[in-house]
Amino acid sequence: MKPRTKARGVALQALYEIDITGHPVEIVLEERFKETPLESRLEEFTRSIVSSIEPMRDQLDTFIAEHAPEWPIDQVSTIDRNLLRIALWEFAVSENTPVKVAINEAIELAKKFGSDSTPRFVNGVLGSLVSRRNEIRQAILSIKSKQHSNSD
């Protein structure tokens, strides 16, 4: 497994645990890093994914739900939901990963961690979200900006 794919896998596992248990981000990440040691740059990449996605889960889920209408977001498996969150965050919010790479990485992780139908489901939902990536980015940045100004 490629190093960044491995880092995304650790992020997926951390987000899964946080989703299921509600454990604090830092504690979950430290446990994941003990189980799966990563180079410091990959650890930072993983930390960035998890700590960025966690506070915007609801916003990401809103967009995901719009593109998977036959599956209410609470009925999408926890693995599938977090795969979608990671890829959507990577190509629409952080914009540090090319769209094709984010989708391919999500599909690779779907094959490893998801059910037989996960790769196709993830590919379909992400494919429909790509055309809205600028709109999604603006909406999330707007929400973050409002939250930041309300905390001042």
Observed structural traits:
152 residues; mainly alpha; N-utilizing Substance Protein B Homolog, Chain A; globular
Descriptive report:
The protein has helices spanning 3-21, 25-35, 40-53, 57-66, 78-94, 99-113, 118-130, 133-151. Helix 1 (3-21) packs across helix 2 (25-35), helix 1 packs parallel to helix 3 and helix 6 (99-113) runs antiparallel to helix 7 (118-130). The protein has eight helices and no strands. The chain is mainly α and 152 residues long. The chain is globular and about 35 Å long.
How are the secondary structure elements laid out?
Elements lengths: L2 H19 L3 H11 L4 H14 L3 H10 L11 H17 L4 H15 L4 H13 L2 H19 L1
Helix pairs in contact: 1-2, 1-3, 1-5, 3-5, 4-5, 5-6, 5-7, 5-8, 6-7
> How many distinct helices?
8
| Cα Rg | 15 Å
- Compute the number of structural domains: 1
Tell me the CATH architecture.
Answer: Orthogonal Bundle
Shape: globular
Please, what is the CATH homologous superfamily? NusB-like
CATH topology: N-utilizing Substance Protein B Homolog, Chain A
Mean pLDDT: 91
CATH class bucket: Mainly Alpha
Biggest sheet descriptor: none
How much of the residues is beta strand, in percent?
under 5%
Stretches with pLDDT under 50, minimum 5 residues: none
Order of helices and strands: HHHHHHHH
> Structural class of the helices, strands and pairings?
mainly alpha
* Terminal-residue CA separation: 43 Å
Q: What portion of residues is helical?
A: over 70%
Instruction: Please give the number of β-strands.
Output: 0
